[in-house]
């Protein structure tokens, strides 16, 4: 597993991984307390191997999660490298000391590489490409 904002990854059991979200970058609006974004990649699992991911330490709007908000994923096998909402239930949500924890399962196919994120990633490059295209259209 790899990510720029995971503070800690623990292998709990054969198929269970615990991921602790670290603080968002220093330039965020609340650098000392805001733990929101996650975006990580997993690979190297066997055919039909089911893993459990527990993501902890998210400081995020509780009402969004309890009303069905769900993380997104991108797979080189299941989604043809397009982002999709994770709709395999259950996504279990826990609230403890003003922080959320999510728990969900994912089954892998041979050679599958999967990326998970809080929501659809939107990069600075994508934004700049959009602005450039827009200026070309209006000029």
Key terms:
Immunoglobulin-like; globular; mainly beta; 139 residues; four-stranded antiparallel sheet; five-stranded mixed sheet
In short:
By secondary structure, the protein is mainly beta.
Which secondary structure elements does this structure contain, and how are they paired or packed?
Elements: E1 6-13, E2 16-21, E3 39-43, E4 50-58, H1 62-66, E5 72-75, E6 84-85, E7 92-96, E8 99-107, E9 113-117, H2 124-138
Parallel strand pairs: 2-4
Antiparallel strand pairs: 1-2, 3-9, 4-8, 5-6, 5-9, 7-8
Could you explain how this protein is built, in words?
There is one protein chain. With 139 residues, the protein is mainly beta. Helices cover 14% and strands 38% of the residues. It has helices at residues 62-66, 124-138; strands spanning 6-13, 16-21, 39-43, 50-58, 72-75, 84-85, 92-96, 99-107, 113-117.
CATH class term: Mainly Beta
- Main sheet, how many strands, which sense, barrel? 5 strands, mixed
Please report the distance between the alpha carbons of the first and last residues: 45 Å
Low-confidence stretches: none
Strand content: 35-45%
Query: Could you say what the CATH architecture is?
Result: Sandwich
- Tell me which oligomeric state these chains represent: single chain
Q: What share of residues is helical? A: 10-25%
Averaging pLDDT over every residue, what do you get?
Answer: 81
Radius of gyration, in angstroms, nearest whole number: 17 Å
Our count of domains comes out at: 1
What is the CATH fold-level name? Immunoglobulin-like
């Amino acid at each position: 597993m790899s990510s720029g904002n995971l503070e800690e990854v623990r292998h709990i059991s054969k198929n269970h991984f615990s991921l602790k979200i670290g603080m968002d970058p220093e330039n965020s609006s609340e650098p000392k307390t805001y733990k929101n974004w996650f975006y990580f990649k997993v690979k190297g699992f066997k055919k039909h191997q089911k893993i459990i991911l527990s993501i902890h330490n998210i400081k995020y709007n509780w009402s969004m999660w309890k009303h069905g908000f769900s993380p997104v994923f991108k797979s080189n096998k299941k989604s043809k490298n397009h982002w999709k909402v994770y709709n395999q239930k259950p996504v279990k949500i826990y609230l403890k000391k003003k922080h959320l924890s999510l728990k969900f399962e994912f089954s892998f196919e041979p050679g599958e590489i999967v990326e998970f994120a809080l929501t659809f990633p939107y990069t600075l490059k994508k934004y700049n490409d959009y602005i450039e295209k827009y200026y070309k259209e209006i000029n």
